[in-house]
Amino acid sequence: MFSFFKKKPKPEVAPLPESSAPTELAQIERVDTAAESAADVTPDTATPVAAGAVAVEAESEVAAEIVPAPVAAEQKRSWLSRLKTGLSKTSSNLSILFVGAKIDDDLYEELESALLVSDAGVEATHFLLNALKKKVKEDKLTEATQVKAALRSLLIDLLSPLQKPLVLDQHQPLVMMIAGVNGAGKTTTIGKLAKHLQAHKQSVLLAAGDTFRAAAREQLTIWGERNNVTVISQESGDPAAVAFDAVHSAQARGTNVVMVDTAGRLPTQLHLMDELKKIKRVIGKGMATAPHEILLVIDGNTGQNALAQVKAFDDALGLTGLVITKLDGTAKGGVLAAIATTRAIPVYFIGVGEQIEDLQPFDAAEFVDALLS
Hints:
Helix content is 42%, strand content 13%. The protein has helices at 73-86, 88-95, 105-117, 122-138, 144-159, 186-199, 214-227, 239-253, 270-286, 305-317, 335-340, 364-371, and strands at residues 47-48, 64-65, 167-168, 174-180, 204-209, 230-233, 257-262, 293-299, 321-325, 347-351, 359-361.
């Protein structure tokens, strides 16, 4: 699943302070991005505004696949409870269908409506209904509980391809580029991801690439101070230059992970989409194989509009993963089924709240159980 390699010697540095509680990391596939040719860019000198990130030397000589850290039973129950509560508006339309229901055309029609209302999309809805009818017939299911269990199995099979392993230590540093529309929660997500990475002994450096919105830089700086992470920032300047400086700074420091924040933009703002392409090219000038991960942050309340965002950003950048935020209180949780039947880009994390522990790796079985609870 992952390639083996020999690590280059690293300078001895102080160990990174451990997180207060171990947290599961997303499961992500590595996608190398070849550097594109572009005009030379000479970035201005960036200023670190929140010092503290240090490198951690890995013991293994091969790339380490992330294995979820042990999670206490109480902590796990707490997350599942928040997930169930967050998806309650979506699940209420689905779970109630099977209470004392007869297995007939009326049930299938109600299920179709419920899936469409949850923004599962036409393609995913028809796939699930056809597969469910076939399974009911072949397995001679007669009870509503059996049909519900069959739907659970089909949904897990549909969503499981979105669950991918994250591999660390294949690149030094691992460069992650974070994109999304305005208000999706990019900056907050970066702060939470930094905490997750630190829990896995990774040193982190943040690049404040949203140079248009002063509040974004300040917000990222606060996250950096809170997590004891360095933030590379410029008051006003070229976001590509900030990203370039961050990569070189991480290389000099021996930092494990660089996360580059970018300004929010709509897919229809072509000049801003071109700027994202430029940032990607310039990162490649700083490190030939970078960026290694290109993540799109999506507001879970956007429903079917999320598909247009995924298509536009994937076409422009070649996405390696998604982070779905704000699933708490949404009635549109079925959008993951729509994603699975269209682009099938991995969903690394889902978020159901504002706290750091409210952002957790996507697990297909947990998600489906919350939907059908």
